[in-house]
Amino acid sequence: MIGRLAGRIDYRGPDHVLLVVSGVGYIVHVSDRTLMSLPATGEFAALYTDLVVREDLLQLFGFPTLQEKEWHRLLTSVQGIGAKASMAILGALGPDGTSRAIALGDWTAIRAAPGVGPKLAQRVVNELKDKAPAVMAMAGALADVVEPDAPGSDTRPARQPRPTPAAAPAAQSEALSALINLGYQQGEAAAAVAEARAEDPEAETAALIRSALRKLAPKG
């Protein structure tokens, strides 16, 4: 299984790149969002990959983070969502937007992806809503892996984990970390998690994240 590739971008297509690794070129399909974020032709890039094997073809799909790769795995587990639809969803929303939409049950956001109709969008939300908070809570840990290799070196130092309150209960700390990784400011995230915790002191991480997201959602 090819799980990660790091090399030089030799060619950029409309939905893929040709990544040359040790003299071998790999065609890696990526979302629109990922394609725009990659460096120019001739420069170095690294992608986590998922290999799709069919009778008549082998296809590699690439993702800039392990969190996005995990979302691809979950999305394609839903009946009716193939690799193309998954890439459309991730291209339209990104991993954070996908996490937020599914955790909140916002199937209209999923429907915004090209080729995803309302019934399919609702199925995605219904089947994955209980799994979304776990992926969100994993985001901090996934961000702490070693960063992409640079030419001439094997690794770069691993990122340091985001600090979380040492005295806070585990579920509260995990929920806070997940919200911060989604881009919320620590103050507003902490307030939302604390409010959710006060309403249900026994709530587990997933429930705290869902409740805090509802409190952070724009009103009106």
Q: Explain this structure to me?
A:
- The chain is globular and about 55 Å long.
- The protein is built from nine helices and five strands; from the N terminus they run βββαββαααααααα.
- It has a five-stranded mixed beta barrel with strand order 1-2-3-5-4.
- It is α+β, with helices and mostly antiparallel strands and 220 residues long.
Key phrases:
5-stranded mixed beta barrel, 3 domains, single chain, DNA polymerase, domain 1, 46% helix, OB fold (Dihydrolipoamide Acetyltransferase, E2P), 5 strands, Helicase, Ruva Protein, domain 3, 220 residues, globular, alpha+beta
What is the string of SSEs from the N terminus onward? EEEHEEHHHHHHHH
CATH architecture of the largest domain: Orthogonal Bundle
Work out the number of β strands.
5
* Terminus-to-terminus distance: 47 Å
Instruction: Please work out how many helical segments DSSP would assign.
Output: 9
Quaternary state reads: single chain
Estimate the helix proportion, in percent: 40-55%
User: What value does the average pLDDT take?
Assistant: 82
Shape: globular
Q: What strand line-up does the widest sheet have?
A: 1-2-3-5-4
The CATH homology group name of the largest domain = 5' to 3' exonuclease, C-terminal subdomain
The CATH class designation of the largest domain is Mainly Alpha
Structural class per helix/strand content? Answer: alpha+beta
Briefly note the CATH topology name of the largest domain.
DNA polymerase, domain 1
Major beta-sheet overview: 5 strands, mixed, barrel
Unreliable parts? 142-148, 152-168
Protein name: Holliday junction branch migration complex subunit RuvA
Pfam families: HHH_5, RuvA_C, RuvA_N
Region (Disordered): 146-172
Region (Domain I): 1-64
